[in-house]
Amino acid sequence: MGEVNLNRLAVFVALVRAGSFTAAAEQLGLTKAMVSQHLARLERELGVTLLVRSTRRMALTEAGAQFHADCERILGETEAAIERAGESRETPRGNLRLTAPVNYGTAVVAPALAGFLRRHPDVRAELVLDDGISDLIGGRFDLAIRGGPLRDSGLRAVRLAGFRQLLVAAPCYLAARGRPRRPMELARHDAILLSVLSSPARWTFTARSGAQTTVRLVPRALADGAAAVHAMALAGAGVAILPDFMVEADIVAGRLEHLLPTQCLPEGSFHAVYAGLHAPAKVRVFIDHLRKSIADKAG
After folding, report:
1. What are the start and end residues of each CATH 1.10.10.10 domain in the chain?
2. Are the C-beta atoms of residues 159 and 271 closer than 8 Å to each other?
3. Residues 33-43: pLDDT tens digits?
4. pTM
5. Cα separation values, 143 from 28, 125, 155, Å
6. Which of 47, 177, 215, 239 is the most exposed place for a label (fewest CB within 10 A)?
7. pLDDT tens digit string along 110-169?
8. CATH number for the domain running over 94-163+269-298
9. Average pLDDT, whole number, for the chain?
């Protein structure tokens, strides 16, 4: 048996349902000759006779009747599969597996995800917190939340929000070592640095006038996660540069102080990253929900 053109299955089923070549041609938008040609080629590909016909009627052979039943089932399953795919495109459902950096995931993504799940009962979620760059496809993630510059890739990225980098220190540290008044004075201070950055000790401050000062901090401690840098800063180990969403509550409570407030550090940003041209509804709707949640908090 040669290779079978699956499009001919639909023509064959339509022909049996219509009961004649003329009616089938009208339903399919084909000529009667084309319907006859499809049937002849399908029988040749299968190597069996499916229909016998006279000038007035046609009838299924035994093989044709069995093949027709199989085709009805196959086409029915195909239509159901297409319908399910359409539902996935339009309605959030299924398992949403996503990854995010530990601190941003805890402070921002997890609360937004809880609200999303309340609104969409047909969605289950698995949140993996990881400060590394997870393999989106190999890890079978639907979505990744990533901070900093994005690597050039075929992945789709949607910007979620920017964040400020703040220079902070605990009051106990400042009481012992004094407060820096200008960026260059940081050379006399101990710094707690995030080792995963490309240049953890080198920072450029921009004054309100636009003047820039690049300084090299003196590392007293290094950590590979922002949570550890944050903890050491709270304990008074030195000055640290941390994202605003991690330290704003500490600044309000007096646990940390914002140093050099008239100087700005480079802004960071977070993106939602996913693979494929068409994201399923669970991904699209969650990204929209997360962006709105971030905007509501900022407002």
Report:
1. 7-90
2. yes
3. 998 899 999 88
4. 0.61
5. 41, 11, 10
6. 47
7. 999 999 999 999 999 999 998 777 778 788 899 999 886 666 566 888 899 888 999 999
8. 3.40.190.10
9. 88
What is the pLDDT averaged over residues 181-201? 92
CATH T-level topology, domain 165-266: D-Maltodextrin-Binding Protein; domain 2 (3.40.190)
